[in-house]
């Protein structure tokens, strides 16, 4: 039985929740229920997932959090996601579920750090321009590079595309020449050969891709 399948009915469905990215979504009490249940599972272990004890506590706390959250709000008001999460922490502490509250706090901190890293990564990526041989500039496309790494790594064991990507991005800079960008991609894989020999095969595939791209560009001139 999934967590969502046993969650309490959603109320205040017309209330909009402002998320951290500024987007507004409809309030859904199921998300509170699931967050509380996951916090309990983090403390008590996955074997307790079918426990009616956790379901009963999560259901009751979800109702309490809804009441506390909307006590001073009208149906059509908006509320920020942080306010709801603060109420979750408070409800867990008041119910003497201190270990679970701590697990929830740690989860929030982890997600906050992940979002911060993603934002920094996106900002860094958006600031990089690649200079073609004719002097024109084009933005660095991280998603396209990830797709290339995953395609070239197909069938290779113990290869981490994210590790290669991290190594590549350390050598990127704004207005990097196209040939230097292509070289950085290959060197990113070569630098990991000591960790896993298959990175040499990945580097060879990336080098071959560079050669194909260069040949294609030449024929189109």
Number of strands: 6
Shape: elongated
Q: What is the straight-line distance between the termini?
A: 60 Å
Can you summarize the main beta sheet?
3 strands, mixed
Percent strand:
5-15%
Low-confidence stretches: none
Q: How are helices and strands ordered from N to C?
A: EEHHEHHEEHHEHH
Determine Rg (CA atoms, Å).
25 Å
Number of discrete helical segments = 8
Helix content: 55-70%
The figure for the number of domains is 2
Trace the largest sheet across and list its strands.
2-1-3
Query: What class do helices, strands and sheet pairing give?
Result: mainly alpha
Mean pLDDT: 84
Characterization of the model:
With 221 residues, the protein is mainly α. The protein has two domains: 16-123; 129-219, no CATH class. The protein is 60% helix and 8% strand. The protein has eight helices and six strands. The protein has a three-stranded mixed β-sheet. The protein has a three-stranded mixed β-sheet with strand order 5-4-6. A hairpin with a 5-residue loop joins strand 4 (129-131) and strand 5 (137-139). Helix 6 packs across helix 7. 19% of the residues are buried.
């Amino acid at each position: 039985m999934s967590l969502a399948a046993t969650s309490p009915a959603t109320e205040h469905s017309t209330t909009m929740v402002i998320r951290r990215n500024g987007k507004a979504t409809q309030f859904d009490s199921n998300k509170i229920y699931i967050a509380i249940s996951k916090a309990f599972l983090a403390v008590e272990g996955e074997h307790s997932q079918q426990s009616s004890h956790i379901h009963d506590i999560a259901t009751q706390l979800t109702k309490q959090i809804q009441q506390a959250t909307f006590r001073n709000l009208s149906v059509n008001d908006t509320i920020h996601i942080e306010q709801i999460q603060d109420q979750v922490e408070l409800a867990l502490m008041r119910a003497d579920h201190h270990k679970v509250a701590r697990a929830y706090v740690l989860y929030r901190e982890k997600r906050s750090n992940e979002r911060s890293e993603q934002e920094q990564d996106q900002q860094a990526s958006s600031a990089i321009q690649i200079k073609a041989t004719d002097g024109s500039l084009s933005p660095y496309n991280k998603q396209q590079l990830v797709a290339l790494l995953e395609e070239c790594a197909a069938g290779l064991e113990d290869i981490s595309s994210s590790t290669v990507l991290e190594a590549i991005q350390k050598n990127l800079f704004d207005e990097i020449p196209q040939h230097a960008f292509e070289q950085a991609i290959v060197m990113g894989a070569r630098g990991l050969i000591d960790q896993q020999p298959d990175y040499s095969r990945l580097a060879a595939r990336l080098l071959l891709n560079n050669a194909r791209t260069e040949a294609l560009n030449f024929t189109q001139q």
